[in-house]
Structure formats: C-alpha cells, structure tokens
Design goal:
The structure holds 2 protein chains of 2 kinds. Chain A is α+β, with helices and mostly antiparallel strands. Chain A contains 3 helices and 4 strands. Classes of the chains: A alpha+beta, B alpha+beta.
C-alpha cells in the first residue's frame, strides 16, 4: 500500500474495543501487529470525488479494478474536489462547520482528515 | 480510501498474561514451566493442570484455583470451574482480555522500535498511540 504523504502516517493508532479486540487502520506501519492474532480486513471509508458525475465514474471503475491497479492509481490522481464517505463503518459523509458536505482539493488533505476521523470514530463511535 | 483491521488477540505471551492477572487484582500468580495440578475448594487435587495459576487463597474462601494451561500451539487457555464461573464469567474474562491486549500491544510495539505516545480511555475502549521512529 502506498504511504500517504502529509498525513500522521508515522503515528500508529490501535483501539481496543469493548470486547478486547484490536481495531486499527490498515497502514504499512500497522503491519507489525499482524502476528498478534488472526485479523479481518474491511473497507473503512471512501475518499471519492465530490461532484456526482466523476463520483459515479470513480465508483464504477473502482468496483471493477483492484486497489493496487494502474487504473485505480489513475483515479486517485484526478484533479477534482474530494469528499470523505465513511458509510462502510456506518459513519457519515464528513461535513464542514456549516453542515455542508466537506470538500478538499488535495486528496491528501481529505485522507488526513479521514484518518483522524476514523481513529476518533473507533474510540468514540457515532 | 482506507481499510481497517479487526483482530482478536491470543494469550500467547506468558508475561503479559501474568501482568494482566495482576491488573485484575491477583498480585500473586504462580508460573510453572511444567503444568501442575489445580487445587479445588475442598483442598482436593483436581485433575486439571495449568502453567499459570492463581491459587484459591487469593480468590476467595470457597473457590477453586484459576489456571491457564499452555497449549501445543503456544497459546494459553483458561481453566475455570463451573463453581467459579460467576466470579470469573464472561465480563471478567473480557476485562482480562482487554488488560492483556493492552500490555501485549505495548510490549510488541516497543520490541519493534515504536515510541509510546500515550493512551486514551473512553466508554470501555482504550486507544493507544505510538510514533513510528523506524524510518526517521
């Protein structure tokens, strides 16, 4: 998995939930915990185009291709506004302070907020 | 686009298991390389053997020993008598597992060179953060 620039990628965060299970984002840094037990990897969120038409195209492409494919890498490089959708973990589409769906021009900025939100979400829930 | 892992920890580190038992209130924990018999609440020798033992005198007046036996795969399994299942039931075992997981994570991360930053406790959950200094 490609490292995210400009994120707190060097900070590794693990949440121990009410049942004693470990929950953590799948990053290169967190791979060190693999040997501590069997794990299930699941989609946590999507950083996707803000506008509807590019988002539909993005979703369609990403449905059919692997995350590591060149086509997926191409979609990550689109010049557009991005939004953070955490519905895979029953979370919200992130909003700004005015209640509107938040948008970031730099995808890396959206990813940084996504990581911060998910780690907070794993600890505090909805 | 992020993925996350949900991972169940296994009792495979004896020192962390002992430390977790300490945290759960049992300061006196026996450790045996060769498993030894547990003692029942009538002071009878029970057939079950364990490697990590909390003796009944530490648990209560009418209690059996609490034991953890090392399995062939290196993991420890709890031996709790039906009689003591009210004291060492699911809720207590979950507490032990959480204490163990925290200690195991901290020990493992330190062995890999991560710098412990701290932890936050909220609503029965614990979140721990480290700084990955390996490539710094």
């Amino acid at each position: 998995m490609k490292a995210y620039p400009k994120t707190e990628r060097r900070v590794v965060t693990v949440t121990i939930d009410e049942s004693g299970d470990m929950v953590y984002l799948n990053t290169p840094e967190s791979d060190i915990f693999m040997e501590l037990g069997e794990r299930i990897t699941t989609r946590a969120s999507h950083v996707e185009p803000y506008a509807l038409l590019p988002r539909l195209l993005f979703t369609a492409i990403r449905y059919f291709v692997h995350d590591d494919s060149r086509l997926a890498a191409w979609t990550r490089g689109w010049k557009c506004f991005w939004r953070v959708n955490t519905r895979p973990v029953d979370g919200p589409i992130l909003r700004n302070q005015y209640g509107n769906i938040a948008a970031w021009w730099l995808r890396e900025d959206a990813i940084r907020v996504e990581i911060e939100f998910l780690n907070r979400f794993f600890l505090e829930g909805k | 686009m992020s993925k996350y892992n949900r991972q169940r920890s296994q009792y495979n580190d004896r020192d962390c298991l002992v430390a977790a038992l300490n945290e759960m209130g049992y300061a006196d924990v026996e450790i045996h390389d060769e498993a030894v018999n547990l003692i029942g609440y009538h002071a009878d020798v029970r057939p079950e053997k364990a490697n990590v033992i909390v003796r009944r005198r530490c648990i209560g007046t009418a209690a059996n020993d609490l034991g953890f036996v090392k399995e062939q795969d290196g993991t420890f399994s709890a031996i709790v008598s039906d009689y003591d299942s009210h004291k060492h039931g699911a809720a207590w075992m979950t507490g032990l597992k959480k204490a163990y997981t925290e200690k195991r994570l901290i020990k493992h991360a330190a062995s890999k060179g991560l710098k412990y930053l701290g932890k936050e406790v909220k609503g029965g959950k614990v979140q721990i953060k480290w700084l990955d200094t390996r490539s710094a």
